[in-house]
What we know:
Order of helices and strands: EHHEEEEHE
Structural class: alpha+beta
Strand content: 15-25%
Amino acid sequence: MPGGGEKKFYASANSSGEMTLTGLTKSIEKISTVSGADIRAVLYAMVDVMQDALANGQIVRLGEPGSLRVGISSEGKATAEEVNSSVILSFRWFNFQIAQFTIFISVFRCVPAISIFSGQ
């Protein structure tokens, strides 16, 4: 193999689409006695409240599904005084963390879109 080493293959999850707030509202409305307008109001309010909490440095705990938190990566500096907003390389609002490994496994088993790619 060029460059040495052993060729390896990795599993990769592929999305099959997306679920929007409108889609969530319609799905919840089908299995609930709450109106779509009320569901939509709560979902949009929840997003606003979560964004405010994340902007204030809080972790948003959602129980069984996991947590949301802000994540950043930055350049390393020799002294603390050199660290400021200019050294931030990337910023992620939502870094979803699975609360329990068993939940992850049960979700993983029902994910049909898994591909294999070479990590060269």
